[in-house]
Amino acid sequence: MTRLDAAGLLPAITFVFSRNGCDAAVHQCLLSGLRLTDEAERAEIAEIIDRRTGSLPEEDLHVLGFWEWREGLLAGLAAHHAGLVPAFKETVEECFVRGLVKAVFATETLALGINMPARSVVLERLTKWNGEAHVDVTPGSTPS
């Protein structure tokens, strides 16, 4: 059990209002050495990854950032946004629902039609781009 988990904060979703920001958050956590999974969880995550992505052509894996994405998942960390191929998004969702991925950095599209059992939800900031300007996040505009 991690210290964060002991505090009752995991699993958690952090809403980051950009795809690049989601990916960068996972990368930064990995660079800092953060690992939220034990050996048994990593083995289960690896099995899910293999099952869900095994049909992807080997030559596509590099282009898709597969190895970096896989490293994050094995550490219990993931990004979730519209820029991920469906196999990656579905893998993240399955791992999170099973309690294997402890922290997801997601754009607000995650809140649309996906029920993921988070104990904590964090907003990266209280402003977001609405397509025309940066505006305050309001209760009616926050991901739910």
UniProtKB/TrEMBL annotation:
The keyword Nucleotide-binding applies. The keyword Hydrolase applies. InterPro entries: P-loop_NTPase, RNA-DNA_Helicase. SUPFAM superfamilies: P-loop containing nucleoside triphosphate hydrolases. Keywords: ATP-binding, Helicase, Hydrolase, Nucleotide-binding. Gene3D superfamilies: P-loop containing nucleotide triphosphate hydrolases. Transmembrane segments: none annotated. This is Helicase. The lineage of its organism: Bacteria, Bacillati, Actinomycetota, Actinomycetes, Geodermatophilales.
